[in-house]
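Example complex used in Figure S2.
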Amino acid sequence: MSRPLTLLIVGSILGGWPMRATVADEGMWLPTDLPAQALQAKYGFTLTEAFRTKLMLASVRFPGASGGFVSPDGLVVTNHHVGGDAIQKLSTPARDLMRDGYYARSRADELPCPDVELNVLQSIEDVTARVTAAVTPAMTPAAAAAARRAVTSDIEKDSFTKTGLRSDVVTLYQGGLYHLYRSKKYTDVRLVFAPEAAIAAFGGDVDNFEYPRTSLDVAFFRAYENGKPARVPHYFRWSAAGPAENDMVLVTGHPGTTNRLETLAKLKHRRDVTLPYDLARLRAYEAALTQYSEQSPDKRREAANVLHGVANRRKAFAGQLQGLLDPAVLAQKEAQEAELMRPVVAGLTPARPDGALTDRYPGTAWARVAAAQRNLAGIERDYALLERGDAFFSDLFPVARHCLRLADEVAKPNPERLREYRDSNLDSLKLTLFSPAPVSRSLELARLTAALTFLAEQLGGEHPAVAKILAGKSPAGRAAELAVGTKLADVAERKRLVEGGRAAVEASRDPLILLARLIDGEARAVRKKYEEEVEEVERQAYAAIADVRFKAFGKSVAPDATFTLRLAFGTVKGYAVDGETLPFCTTFGDAFKRWEVLEKREPFTLPPRWVERRAKLDPTTPFDFVSTADTIGGNSGSPVLNRAGEVVGVNFDRNRHGLVRNFVYTDTQARHIAVHSRAVLEALAKVYDAQPLADELTAPPPETP
Amino acid sequence: MSRPLTLLIVGSILGGWPMRATVADEGMWLPTDLPAQALQAKYGFTLTEAFRTKLMLASVRFPGASGGFVSPDGLVVTNHHVGGDAIQKLSTPARDLMRDGYYARSRADELPCPDVELNVLQSIEDVTARVTAAVTPAMTPAAAAAARRAVTSDIEKDSFTKTGLRSDVVTLYQGGLYHLYRSKKYTDVRLVFAPEAAIAAFGGDVDNFEYPRTSLDVAFFRAYENGKPARVPHYFRWSAAGPAENDMVLVTGHPGTTNRLETLAKLKHRRDVTLPYDLARLRAYEAALTQYSEQSPDKRREAANVLHGVANRRKAFAGQLQGLLDPAVLAQKEAQEAELMRPVVAGLTPARPDGALTDRYPGTAWARVAAAQRNLAGIERDYALLERGDAFFSDLFPVARHCLRLADEVAKPNPERLREYRDSNLDSLKLTLFSPAPVSRSLELARLTAALTFLAEQLGGEHPAVAKILAGKSPAGRAAELAVGTKLADVAERKRLVEGGRAAVEASRDPLILLARLIDGEARAVRKKYEEEVEEVERQAYAAIADVRFKAFGKSVAPDATFTLRLAFGTVKGYAVDGETLPFCTTFGDAFKRWEVLEKREPFTLPPRWVERRAKLDPTTPFDFVSTADTIGGNSGSPVLNRAGEVVGVNFDRNRHGLVRNFVYTDTQARHIAVHSRAVLEALAKVYDAQPLADELTAPPPETP
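Predicted assembly (1410 residues):
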């Protein structure tokens, strides 16, 4: 078989991974298709049924992130930055838990979080046949989307009625496979332990996506049921030793989004349209939030979490863009796509003699994805600004929109509702909506000013939506009107509106409710267009591509990440960069060294407690380590396990070489980064006087009945 | 005369300024048309010929900024941030003048700056007739531009030959008036005194464009001639008392750019295209520079000046955009334009019955400006990225381009050259080009990576220029190749190339030279298009508009700012904001108060010397003050004078309410901000042990011969 020329280029830059199936430690594997063979072959590790069960039942999903049960009493580990929002919301000017950390010395001291929901996957059912049967080739995209929405809604509802468990139909392989996931939900979640933000995020946004790192990015929460600590049958014990170099590790968690199975046209659209837009937006928000948080220590505290989130995404997207702008990466994708298309187009006559394959064969699924990108180009900014809400970046606009839409949507039959208002999602929605977390009016003002300005920059001052939204004022003037005038910071007002239904919402003169109504028509219209002309077209095309891929490779290629439970595996090892070899782990000593070299300036200030206890700490204690396992955003808080299923680390980041992993896996330099389990035990015992918590983690398992 | 309805809206928001001529303290006045009458009428101040002469001969132009002679021995005051680049370049890791400040205790200690050029205006000649006569209505825009270039080049050359003085033909009223300015040049400029950056820019980018302020943003340099301090016949004496509330002040300096006489179409283009693009670019640079400077104290020092410049422009442009997005501002402009057009269109039959006036009367000068904006829209990004150099944001790319172009351009007759290579500019160009200031390779790498990424974001990965520039690499990879491979950091190499001429440049394999050549064709082509299809069209149209305006108002409307010498005047007074009244000045005590309230964190850290000497300082000493005088960027370093022509302050900023002044003057809240002359004397004496410098400032004038 002759290989396209482009491949020759690739090898020299990316270290040369082959065109098909997976290599090395690639893969975020479904619980239903764990890579037992690969683990046996490469690591001599036998994946037992018991291990599989524990992976599923001891892994915990945070919204958009990961964690795991680490004691039979519902103790959950995750990252400090995953729990950051909750920790922030439990803080007051008088009790700054972000700055000072927190340790509950008794169960009674564990602090209930206002709006944290944890989910634990209980079962998986393949519902592909039922979902695909509902859609026939004769249907228009709109009809197909509606039919699929109806059938998934039915499946979810049936399941919920039958089991009482949260039920979600999950789309895999971009529409090649549909699974029904049932989860147990915990909404009484309490804070047990958080270190100071200064050590949890030592190096802050400077060190984000960098290695070597020296951060204690962990936090412990406890799930409660009926006012008591939840008794959980499956949990991961804590390893006192942690990993050594070259150990195999397994990473369990909820990787969010990868784009490895996307077509070339989609990736080019991301490179040329989506990512540049998102970067422009995030940089605009970041500049505004930085300016805000520098005004006073209080404002800094208020904005910290939002700012970190924005800076984090900005850096991640910048890394992704670098990856897509690397011609070797796209050449690789192009070659893979050509090979996958080969059997499909073998019998076809090209419609055009030259150009991209999708131009030559316009009827193929790949060409349909390309066509969807052209549709997308026409509506993407409107969609992002008006429907995704980029133009209204704030805490309270989403609240206003939910109040408005909830009243309209619950009046409709369940399958016809917008996804977020279906019965299966209502409880979670209300948890967020009625969160008593305080809202800073001045931060809302700064965010709305930045967002409305960005809106005008993107669409121009003459755009009808801009004129409508600004309503005769400058962005700053309009933001002031909204942020000062709204009463939605008050949870009682939100409840009044939701309970009062459509009549109450229609009577409301709240400026944010009025704004949400003002643009609801445009927002819904562009969402409809997006769902029908982009999402649905892509979904059907990708389902066809998935079939081609299944035929060629079976399920030896893992589906793209979807915020659902996955298992990755890899080897603990360092790597070389710019001629320097970085070790597989850092130490406590390294943290103190960097603190001194970087002149103890933010974000390289150590908390007072660490400085005071320095002499008590063994400087050789491993702090953070890296492995080759295949992770992505959403894996934050993922337990890293050894062969015995014990927690040897808590994943919290990737290095910058790993940012390209959205599109391709590489282990040349790409690594994920985890806190070493020994670092946690040492810090709990010697810095935080939290020996009881360390004991709970390492206690021998209770007797099996 | 019936007034358009739109005016009614305006008054309520902007405080209602009238449609024509100037009000209050509006105006950046030409030395040839000083507002003697207004000063007499409003302030009872008589502008003498002697005062006029001193204004011209004691005002000093820094590149893009202002200053003034303040002793007969060539001592010059300006802002620390104006001298920042020079101070930075005189710094080394061992001698950090930005951090520690500097005071030359003797003339021998005054530090020669590698590349500072000062200009002092000597005479002004009206050459409008000669310039306009060279252009005939029959000429194409290209021919007209060439003819005007030729005649201005001749005028400048004749003048230079005759006088030996730097000679520039200055375009005023967007082309309504041409003046020949002759300047005396000083290139041996030495640093005398600079405070620590921490107090010069106390509050840093947080306080930028804000008031109340407490910054000592001053620096002193000395002009030398023939190795000795320049003896200057005119200078401003330093006032020991400084201004009191409600005093009249005069501000002399070089305001850079205002857009008050621009047409509505031009302003809308700025609002919808130019400013959003520039903001996106600056935010991209800012994010990259912030990330860079946080990596280590050394990197922070290296990047400080560039980062401040970027953040400053970002904030200024954001304020301008807010202004243009204020419908009241545009309504005002629309009404003014309609009134100015009225006599012009009175006899015309509308080509279209409705729409904007420029659509109804497509032949008018205003419509031609609108048409130029449509031309601009098609080339603006390419022009900015490739020719202005946004895609190559660095110190060394401009060097490479100059080496390349200089070789080509000097071979041409003077008037045919690109402006910057005409004989009259060559000395200044070489001063910059051969500056021995060190260049940080790692900062170049960070800047180029950000810029090349921004290029790809803006034009997309498939754009031929992007593909050509990236040359098969990712932005980061390409930047590394350029920043590591270039030898242009070495001044000897630059000299070798410039002296070797075209042969040397053609033989060079320097990656930056190769890059400059690679895109020179595209860059020159887009510049040509820009100059012919936008600049020239606008120039001719604005000249016609200027004629209309001269007929209506004479020269009672000052021309837009052009980085040439202007005089503004105003009243020292505070203002109210959000119900709070801000005083006309701050005090030393306020600085210490803010330092404490803001927890002594950057950028609110006081230098150790200030902390140590706190007890010696009178906390009631005035620090910074505000007045209503009409200033803009470029006025940085402007001497603020009292009726006696003494320096009572040094202007260094506007407040954020003043950012809209690019487009409209208002004194409702808008103020410029200056360091109080007493603050400087107190600090020199009590903090810096620099009594001799204070004495030089306040010495009685030497005997008049």
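Chain B touches chain A through 52 residues (CB under 8 Å). The longest helix of chain B spans residues 520-553.
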